[in-house]
Amino acid sequence: MNEYFTFDVATFLASFGSNPFSAMFTIFISGGWIIFLIVIVWAASKFWMYWRQSIAAGQKEFITLAIDIPRLNEKDPGQSLRAVENMFAHLAGAHAPASWTETWIQGKYQDPISCEIISIEGNVQFIIRCLRSLRDLVEASIFAQYPEAEIAEVEDYANNVPSLYPDQEYDLWGTEMIPAGGKSSFYPLKTYPSFEHSMSGEFKDPLSVLLEGLSRLGPGEQAWVQLLCLPIDVGAYQKGGTKLIKELKGEKVVTPPSTLEKIILAPFNLFILIAGEILGSVSGNTAPAKANDPLQSKIFNLSPGERKVLEAVENKVSKIAYTCKIRFMYIGKKNVFKKPKIVQSLIGFIKQMNTNDMLSLKPEAKNVGVNGALLFMRERRNNVRKRRLLSYYKSRSVWDGNAPYYLCTEELATLWHFPHTFQVKAPQLKKRESKHSEPPMNLPFG
């Protein structure tokens, strides 16, 4: 039977002599045009989408909001981080699913909300950059948890540094954080409940080391931390998380075929169905499959560490999540540029949330991040990376650079929150010194 399914390429080409174009034409008219058509349609759809989204992007207006943090009370640090978690849950209301017409005709797409912590010459400021149309949502999210906070619209600080490198006066280092070891981002980072002592209740703010490092910058130095949060549809997120949970439990995971696979396999499935009916009628009814012994299931044989991981994944999947990306930038004048001065604080801050058995983040240096260990054309290649990284940062793009990953509201609150000023002693941290209050209702007039 094999001779009927053998295709001799050499014989096929030899039949057309020295004219390969005849062979190509024969393949094209014999069905190869379908592949050609699919490629053309795919490329045309990409160009169309890029054109429509470019027009839509030019009509959007973004704002940069500076947040002056209130002096937080000392009574319950964990309560304040839960307030920030509620804030991120509220900000998820920015998700706006687009219809077919909005996507393909109007070029509508979802924009991320950028939560940032910056230090300009040691002056630390909390920043949120978003669409102007989302200002009410952002302010309501913050004021609902921190009524005494102050929010002001400011110019984008990222536009005040050179965009092209090498530059005569400034130098730049930057990177993006990516999951280490190819670990799925459905595994969680270590979050703020883990930084609270189980007995005394004492809370050690993981943000303090970062703010201390940022406050030590001097004249001519800047450091930026960018946490991009793209609101998402929960369907794909919960589907992927549920799959990982089943794998950790030892349950069988069946991946449903895609639409293309269904079309291709339809004739074979029909043949199998017919054959099964015929064979079933001949052989008679078969005995039902024996149920799995629950004592043999992996869920009953998990170690304490494996059970802890399973519970942590379930906790993450149960919460609202975003597609996220973290970027670090350090920019300074060449005469004061000292990368280890701040980079160690940036990386150390992230390492506090890393675990060996769950999600860990690390700085990327192979494709995007600035890498001092490149072998060939090091300076030239790093200058290209510097320009790209700064461009990605300024545009607040969650798609440019390395692939984004999932972070839930609890993880986001751990990475970006208003610090406790009784723990964080950074002298130049911008904060509210006074409390505003409304005048009494019975105040006499005139």
What does it look like?
The chain has 446 residues and is of the alpha+beta class. It folds into 2 domains: 15-59; 62-240 and 303-415. Helices cover 40% and strands 16% of the residues. It contains 12 helices and 9 strands. It has helices at 9-14, 20-58, 77-91, 100-104, 135-145, 208-215, 234-249, 259-283, 304-317, 339-351, 378-395, 409-415; strands at residues 62-68, 113-120, 123-131, 150-154, 170-179, 221-231, 321-333, 361-363, 405-408. Strands 1, 2, 3, 4, 5, 6, 7, 8 and 9 form a 9-stranded antiparallel sheet that branches. Strand 2 (113-120) and strand 3 form a beta hairpin. Helix 7 packs antiparallel against helix 9. The protein is globular, with a radius of gyration of 28 Å.
